[in-house]
Design a protein that fits this description.
- The protein is of the alpha+beta class and 95 residues long.
- The protein has one domain (2-83).
- The chain contains two helices and seven strands, in the order βββαβββαβ.
- The strands form two sheets. Strands 3-5-6-4 form a four-stranded mixed sheet, with helices on both faces. A three-stranded antiparallel sheet has the order 2-1-7, with helices on one face.
- A hairpin with a 2-residue loop joins strand 1 (2-7) and strand 2 (10-13).
Length: 95
Protein backbone atom coordinates (compact mmCIF):
# COMPACT_ATOMS: atom_id res chain seq x y z
CA UNK A 1 0.00 0.00 0.00
CA UNK A 2 1.33 3.44 -0.88
CA UNK A 3 2.13 5.76 1.99
CA UNK A 4 2.53 9.52 2.08
CA UNK A 5 5.46 11.28 3.77
CA UNK A 6 4.13 14.13 5.94
CA UNK A 7 7.48 15.41 7.20
CA UNK A 8 10.00 14.60 9.92
CA UNK A 9 9.89 10.87 9.23
CA UNK A 10 6.12 10.60 9.63
CA UNK A 11 4.08 8.62 7.13
CA UNK A 12 0.40 7.86 6.63
CA UNK A 13 -1.45 5.63 4.22
CA UNK A 14 -2.34 7.64 1.13
CA UNK A 15 -5.82 6.10 0.98
CA UNK A 16 -6.75 7.75 4.30
CA UNK A 17 -6.05 11.30 3.10
CA UNK A 18 -9.26 13.19 2.34
CA UNK A 19 -8.04 16.78 2.03
CA UNK A 20 -4.79 18.76 1.95
CA UNK A 21 -5.07 22.55 2.36
CA UNK A 22 -2.85 25.47 3.37
CA UNK A 23 -3.40 26.66 6.95
CA UNK A 24 -4.57 30.11 5.88
CA UNK A 25 -7.02 28.86 3.24
CA UNK A 26 -10.42 29.78 4.73
CA UNK A 27 -12.50 30.43 7.81
CA UNK A 28 -14.12 26.99 7.46
CA UNK A 29 -10.75 25.28 7.66
CA UNK A 30 -9.82 27.27 10.77
CA UNK A 31 -13.18 26.39 12.31
CA UNK A 32 -12.55 22.71 11.55
CA UNK A 33 -9.11 23.00 13.18
CA UNK A 34 -10.62 24.52 16.32
CA UNK A 35 -13.43 21.95 16.50
CA UNK A 36 -11.14 18.94 16.09
CA UNK A 37 -8.57 20.45 18.45
CA UNK A 38 -11.19 20.71 21.20
CA UNK A 39 -12.10 17.07 20.56
CA UNK A 40 -8.43 16.02 20.85
CA UNK A 41 -8.26 14.81 17.25
CA UNK A 42 -5.35 16.97 16.02
CA UNK A 43 -1.78 15.77 15.56
CA UNK A 44 0.88 18.49 15.32
CA UNK A 45 3.87 17.37 13.24
CA UNK A 46 5.55 20.77 12.94
CA UNK A 47 8.12 20.31 15.73
CA UNK A 48 7.87 24.02 16.49
CA UNK A 49 8.14 25.17 12.88
CA UNK A 50 5.64 27.25 10.96
CA UNK A 51 2.29 25.58 10.24
CA UNK A 52 2.01 25.30 6.47
CA UNK A 53 -0.67 22.72 5.75
CA UNK A 54 -3.54 20.76 7.23
CA UNK A 55 -4.23 17.17 6.24
CA UNK A 56 -7.67 15.75 6.99
CA UNK A 57 -7.69 11.98 7.38
CA UNK A 58 -10.57 9.54 7.39
CA UNK A 59 -11.90 9.06 10.90
CA UNK A 60 -11.91 12.85 11.44
CA UNK A 61 -8.25 13.22 12.37
CA UNK A 62 -6.42 16.39 11.39
CA UNK A 63 -2.65 16.60 10.92
CA UNK A 64 -0.78 19.90 11.05
CA UNK A 65 2.36 19.76 8.92
CA UNK A 66 5.33 22.04 8.31
CA UNK A 67 5.43 20.86 4.68
CA UNK A 68 3.70 23.07 2.12
CA UNK A 69 0.28 21.92 0.93
CA UNK A 70 1.45 22.04 -2.70
CA UNK A 71 4.28 19.61 -1.91
CA UNK A 72 1.97 17.26 -0.04
CA UNK A 73 -0.54 17.29 -2.92
CA UNK A 74 2.25 16.44 -5.36
CA UNK A 75 3.36 13.55 -3.12
CA UNK A 76 -0.25 12.38 -2.81
CA UNK A 77 -0.72 12.43 -6.58
CA UNK A 78 2.45 10.39 -6.96
CA UNK A 79 1.22 7.92 -4.35
CA UNK A 80 -2.17 7.52 -5.97
CA UNK A 81 -0.77 7.18 -9.48
CA UNK A 82 2.41 5.34 -8.45
CA UNK A 83 4.37 7.51 -10.87
CA UNK A 84 7.47 7.33 -8.70
CA UNK A 85 7.74 11.09 -8.09
CA UNK A 86 7.70 12.74 -4.69
CA UNK A 87 8.22 11.07 -1.31
CA UNK A 88 6.45 7.79 -1.85
CA UNK A 89 7.05 4.53 -0.06
CA UNK A 90 5.53 1.35 -1.41
CA UNK A 91 5.19 -1.31 1.28
CA UNK A 92 6.05 -4.80 0.16
CA UNK A 93 3.56 -7.59 0.81
CA UNK A 94 4.96 -10.13 3.22
CA UNK A 95 4.15 -13.81 2.61
Amino acid sequence: MPTLHLGFGTWTRAEHVLLVVPVSSSVRVKRLLNTLSEAGRVIDLTRGRKRRSLVLLSGEWLIISAVRAKSLRRRLAAAEGNTGGGMLHEEQDQP
